């Protein structure tokens, strides 16, 4: 069975170098990596290289629920592309494209089967929107 792929994207009004750094540095990831204001990422680790691992602890702020989101990098091309395999085996690819004064971030991931595609797309887009807002205001 072929996996469903979902793509989310955003244009961030910031130079590519800043977008890359904020996307990958744990001290920034903990500031933007949430889909809604009642969630947060209290800690993040990132070994940004092919074969390196990453993990982000995502939790509801009220402590009612949390999980570790992680995986292993398959390919890292600085300022261009990141691909990784999530801990559950699904693949993700993120492309960074400088377009004038903006940087386009395109993220494509394989859907999981427990939640509707629209819900997954909405959640990942919300996180990407939060990333855009964080980069543009810091």
Automatic annotation (TrEMBL):
Activator of Hsp90 ATPase homologue 1/2-like C-terminal domain segment(s): 13-136
InterPro entries per UniProt: ASHA1/2-like_C, START-like_dom_sf
Superkingdom of source: Bacteria
One Pfam family hit: AHSA1
Family: Belongs to the AHA1 family.
Protein name: Activator of Hsp90 ATPase 1 family protein
Native species: Fluviicola taffensis (strain DSM 16823 / NCIMB 13979 / RW262)
């Amino acid at each position: 069975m072929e996996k469903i792929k979902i793509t989310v994207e955003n244009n961030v009004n910031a130079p590519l170098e800043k977008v890359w750094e904020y996307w990958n540095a744990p001290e920034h990831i903990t500031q933007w990596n949430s889909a809604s204001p009642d969630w947060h990422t209290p800690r993040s680790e990132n070994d940004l290289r092919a074969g390196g691992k990453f993990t982000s602890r995502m939790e509801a702020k009220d402590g009612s629920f949390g999980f570790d989101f992680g995986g292993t990098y398959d390919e890292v091309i600085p300022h261009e592309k990141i691909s990784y395999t999530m801990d559950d085996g699904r693949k993700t690819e993120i492309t960074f494209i400088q377009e004038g004064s903006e940087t386009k971030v395109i993220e494509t991931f394989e859907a999981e089967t427990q939640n509707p595609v629209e819900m997954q797309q909405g959640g990942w887009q919300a996180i990407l929107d939060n990333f855009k807002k964080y980069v543009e205001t810091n």
